[in-house]
Amino acid sequence: MINFRFHLVSIAAILIALAAGIALGSGPLDDAGDALSGKDVAAQTSDPAVRAFETGYAGRTGGALLKGKLKGQPVVLLTVPGASSAEVRGVTGDLVDAGATVTGEIALTSKILSSSSRQFAEGVAQQSAADVPGVGSAGDSYGRIGAALARSVMKDTGGKVDSTATTIRSAFTEGDLIAETKAPKRLATLAVLVTGPQRSGGSEQSTVIAALAGAFNGTGRGIVVAGPSSSSTDGGAVKAVRDGDAGSEISTVDVTDSAAGRIVVALAAAQQVGGKPGAWGTSRSADGAVPD
Length: 292
Prior knowledge:
Blueprint: H1 4-20, H2 38-44, H3 48-66, E1 74-79, H4 85-97, E2 101-108, H5 118-128, H6 141-153, E3 159-160, H7 163-174, E4 178-182, E5 186-187, E6 190-194, H8 203-216, E7 223-226, H9 237-243, E8 251-253, H10 259-273, E9 279-280
Parallel strand pairs: 1-2, 1-6, 6-7, 7-8, 8-9
Antiparallel strand pairs: 2-4, 3-5
Helix pairs in contact: 1-3, 3-10, 4-10, 5-6, 5-7, 6-7, 6-8, 8-9
């Protein structure tokens, strides 16, 4: 009988092939006017037969790998401008297949990720979350912004959406700092942030994403940050998270442009819940292709 380890090795082989240069493609991107890196152009033009094989294989093996890994875990999904809608759908589906309850989906806008809006966002955070422990005492602006935003969608114990969460989320929404793609129906204990590819001139946004992720990681089980392969190259958000102060405490995956890679995101989420964060995906990932 083929066991789980065989499946893991097989998926790892696919991801190693990806790292070696076999581009497996990505979904349509938001903000299409931004310049994509050469690697992402190559991914979009890769052999559709290879993409179909990889997607079919992942579909056949993923269920057994994911079964029960996140059973009963409430997870909130976060996105940023440039994230592929197809990749977001795939990550969501794999989280559900692993047993998670996806409580809602929140889009971080370009405004909250722009350093020019930092003071405004900090003011919104302090006014809407003045009585929330940890917000006022956070070490810097993005620490306070991230701590407030985390409290609007997460709580250490999860549970029903309370008035504090609603007040904060309403303030951030009215300030055009976030958009409720799917309003959370309950509070989560884990966040999964899906980012887009590395873009020319995008290092500032990536730095802000890393700072916010570090603040989110102080709530509940923390956060997983995932993106396509180029997101772990210079200027990419996954690389910024890995290089940041909280890099060793946040789970990261850099292969969401692969169906097998989106399975790895759910496996990484299970590792984060279990208190074993790591970096998985391409050869740029310190902990290998797939969590043990």
